[in-house]
Amino acid sequence: xxxxxxxxxxxxxxxxxxxxxxxMYAILAAIIIGSxxxxxxxxxxxxxxxxxxxxxxxxxxxxxxxxxxxxWIQEMDDDNGFVVEMNNSYIAKNNYYLENDIQPKPYDxxxxxxxxxxxxxxVSLFTIIVAAGIVAHEFRWGTIKLLLTRPISRAQILLSKYxxxxxxxxxxxxFVVLFSWIVGAILFGINGINPSIVIEQNDEFAQVSxxxxxxxxxxxxxxxxxxxATFAFMISSIFRNSTLAIGTAIFLMFAGNSIVGFFSDHxxxxxxxxxxxxxxxxxxxxxxxxxxxxxxxxxxxxxVYYAIFLVLSWVVFTRRDVAGQ
Amino acid sequence: MTESAMELMNVxxxxxxxxxxxGLTFTINKGxxxxxxxxxxxxxxxxxxxxxxxMRLSAGDVRILGKxxxxxxxxxxxxxxxxVENPELYPFMSGWQNLKHFARMIPxxxxxxxxxxxxxxxxxxxxxxKVGKYSLGMRQRLGxxxxxxxxxxxxxxxxxxxxxxxxxxxxxxxxxxxxxxxEDVAVIxxxxxxxxxxxxxxxxxxxxxxxxxxxxxxxxxxxQENVQQVVLEVTPACQAIELLNEKLAIEASAKDGAxxxxxxxxxxxxxxxxxxxxxxxxxQVGLSNDTLEDKFFDLIGENxxx
Lengths: 325, 306
Fold this sequence. Notes:
Number of helices of chain A: 12
Strand order of the largest sheet of chain A: 1-2
Mean pLDDT of chain A: 87
Oligomer: heterodimer
Distance between the termini of chain B: 40 Å
Low-confidence stretches of chain A: none
């Protein structure tokens, strides 16, 4: 166990000693600070509700929305339909606050963290880059010959590299969450330790704890991250080519939903990995992309794909003859 | 006294339908420096890769201190330090970080041991610098340091003199001789240049087209001084051959218009005296000591890859 820990330590050292890794963290920090500043200067921070007259403020808002809607409807333009709908949903949300006597809270660090869930796509991208290089680079540098002539089995070396990729993903994720929270706390302040927020669920509003919202938001996205990183890792160990691994993994990450959409008429489309990576489709009695899919089915498919990726990497890596370039 | 450190038993490698290595059998003893010589493409690197488990053996077995590389990989490879082809290390880490990295992969290597190896190779000064800034000679030394960390019983160096200047080659030669003599390490060196490693080896195996076609002991320096290959330019050549055979029992052969034969150095004045007494014109006498090289070329013939 101690040996394995040292192997993982070696891999982490090789990841974090390189400047390219620090550039990744600098990019994430820049995005977090930048989007925080944009919200701070141009966003609606909900400070108008902090006074005792918040009920009047909400009612005034509702009247404005209704007036706005009447004007749009008079114009009778089909394109304006969605503006009307949006206004209606604002009105419904405000009514929910009023009916349940909940004072809306101003925008804070927790909400900023929740909003930054989109950054997991960037974390996925960086994890793919690391996963794609972790085996392929050893071959390119020629150092694979030094690694494989130690009294350690090849399977263990491969596993230490895979675990290191997951640890990198975890560290980067924690960085995004913590740094977003800190930036958010400085710019917007904090509404207590675990404030509740009002969100729309199944066409109605509900009050939920923000921590559980953050956890589930990040959690659902993590599935796709891990699947794509494992895919890149597999390509990297089979073809020893980091460019190929990065290219295919990123292509599939962005084109995945289009691929599913394209083949959605076919019965076998539900067996495509990307039809199953978004487990959120089953949350709150939602309907899945393709009819007949269940949560159990998707989890089975994910496990099967995951196992195939890892077994293929293992078979090829442990049996390969390490010859010249 | 001689104990075998590494044994190759009918080692074969087949890739596709092609036999790359066609059954190698030889033994390397402790404290011996063994040179593996052959033209490019003869199968030297393939053989070395099989010795350390980087490539699978199609048939046969390699035993290191009695442990099979096939069935007992971890135990066998623990006894081996190896550099395959170029000394490739992580260019973005310092020499020290590289050594620490590899030290973590084998239990029982202390910082003191790393310092000891660094000192042995005279690397104290550049050890904190990034390997990317190293010269080839420095990387070669760090490569050897990496291979020596766990005090292996067998050291395998593939083309260690590749790209080194004469001073670098000389330095490496000194380390290798010292390791073999003082630490009883078996050293295996491969090269396609006989002249570069002739001086550091005790024994040389010549490999061609995946077969070991000869093993030769390199004669010690004292022995070499006694019996020498003598080249003698004299006319008339035919009579001179007869004369040497009759009077001095030396069998000479005519080659490129000169006589060539083997004899002790002390006899050369007598030979010249005899020839002059019989009215023969002696133009020049010379010594040639590249008999091993001649043999090498005779054995491998043209440098062709089949």
